[in-house]
Amino acid sequence: MDRLSEHSAFTGAAVARLHHGASNNFTDQLAVETPIAFVYNCEPYVVMMASPRDLEDFARGFSISEGIVANNSDILAVDQTAKSSGISLGIEIPPDRAALLIERMRSIAGRTGCGICGISDIEQVMRALPQLPHSAPINASAIDAAIKALPAHQTFNKQTGAVHAAGFANANGELLLVREDVGRHNALDKLIGAIICAGLSPADGMVVITSRCSMEMVQKTIALGCPVLVAVSAPTSLAVQIAQDHGLTIAAFARGDGFNLYSHPERIV
Asked: Which class for 89: exposed (0-12), middle (13-18), buried (19 or more C-beta within 10 A)?
């Protein structure tokens, strides 16, 4: 297998394919998954398994979606350092924010498939979230358009077949930003960072994801301040409950020819 590059999204691997009794050797492309360490003010916080690209977006989006900082201006600097077995993100935040972070310090690695690994207190899982305000309605055709457009922007998934995507679309269904990662919640964090850095208004569009709609995806979308979350697969019961309580519209099982509305259907016309 090729040596992993710091910012490569995929790497070549020699593969033997057996099909109808015949063997065929070829080079396949595998999605790179590497440890990404989040270090705040020189204090290690958590290690996430992720795709090693769009890492400044990741640092900013994760910090905001997890409530570590209140807004992008609280992130004073992001430095990337390549390590022998991964990448370290050195994130500088104000001292008062760093003091609050120590109280909820995580101590174990975050796996690719879980957005809350390492939290030691049950109360931290159900954290305080803002109430989303009423927003302008979105036409159902815009949701269908965004879902249909998303595959064309999944460049790394086309290479590997193992990468999730999260996109941000405007009220007309036009995709403005897309981020990909081996972890669904990582892709969303990267998207959140990209939205904020681009100066876009989360309240004026919708988040579109290629995964199931789990509670951490709902929490991150609410923390972003986006009123609509569109998912290709199903939501969980807790995801629907949190969305209902905080004013988020969930459109799930969205496949380009329709979808199911699980919370606040009044936003969709």
From this structure: buried
pLDDT digits (tens, 9 = 90+) for 65-104: 999 999 999 999 999 999 988 999 999 999 999 998 887 7
The CATH label, of 3.40.140.10, 3.20.20.480, 3.40.50.620, 3.90.1580.10, for the domain at 140-267 is 3.40.140.10
Q: Which residues of the chain have pLDDT under 50?
A: 1-6, 107-108
Q: 49: buried, middle or exposed (CB in 10 Å: 19+, 13-18, 0-12)?
A: buried
What's the rounded Cα separation, in Å, for the pair 44 and 121? Answer: 18
Q: Could you tell me the sign of the dihedral formed by the alpha carbons of 137, 143, 144, 149, in that order?
A: positive
Is the pTM above the cut of 0.85?
Answer: yes
Query: Hey, what amino acid is at 77?
Result: A
Q: Provide the angle, in degrees to the nearest 10, between the axes of the packed helices 215-224 and 55-65.
A: 90
Closest CA to 46 of 129, 126, 115, 145: 115
Question: Phi, psi at residue 216, to the nearest 5°?
Answer: -70, -30
How is residue 238 written in tokens? 């807790």
114, 117, 213, 226: which is the annotated catalytic residue? 114
Q: Which overall architecture, per CATH, does domain 34-125 show?
A: Roll (3.10)
Strands (E), 121-174: 164-170
Indicate the SS3 state at residue 163: coil
Identify whether 226 is a catalytic site residue: no
Alpha-carbon distance of 167 to 146, in angstroms, equals 9
